[in-house]
TrEMBL record:
Keyword Ribosomal protein set for record: no
One GO MF term attached to the UniProt entry: DNA binding
Signal peptide: none
Region feature Disordered, mapped onto this chain: 138-179
PROSITE patterns: HTH_MARR_2
Any matching Pfam family: MarR
Organism: Cohnella thailandensis
SMART domains reported for this sequence: HTH_MARR
Keywords of this entry: DNA-binding
Organism classification: Bacteria, Bacillati, Bacillota, Bacilli, Bacillales
Protein name listed in UniProt: MarR family transcriptional regulator
Domain of life: Bacteria
InterPro entries named in the record: HTH_MarR-typ, MarR/SlyA-like, WH-like_DNA-bd_sf, WH_DNA-bd_sf
GO BP terms: response to stress
Domain HTH marR-type: 1-135
Amino acid sequence: MEMAAEFVKSWLKLSKDWNTQMETELAPQLTAGQLQVLELMLQFEPMKPSDLLPYLETTPAAITTLLDRMERNGLVRRDRDEHDRRIVWVSMTDLGRSEAERGLKIRSDIVSRSLERLSLHNRQLLIYLIGKVAGTWEPPAGSSSQADKGADKPAEASGTASEPAAVSETGAGSEAVNG
């Protein structure tokens, strides 16, 4: 199987497994989509519904439906802006805040259970590599290694949490890849 196809197959299975576990463990009070909104609100509260668009892969109508359901369930409230009545601000309720905390713990537990299948080194390496692929990994301040500069060749084995020892092109690293 081609490398990209194998990656997609594994990524989709992992995503499906995590989503199934999330929906089961969050129920009945919360869905994964609602948790995503609450998590954003933990960072940016209050928000206008339109502020959610860049973060959620959906339409304005779907966001309205989602917020309607969340408001009915007591997770959020909507308030008109004091100075411009056309603007609606969405805020979390106390229940929404506690459900956000519960949901984030559930997600952390689900991911941790999956990562426990790997050694500490391989967990660090996986996080590093996914960050590089996603473009979200940032080198530590003051670092100037070859891997930090986006080179395709593996860096020298360092074993640090911020830049784990690299795995060679054949998949062999300083320890077994499977565990």
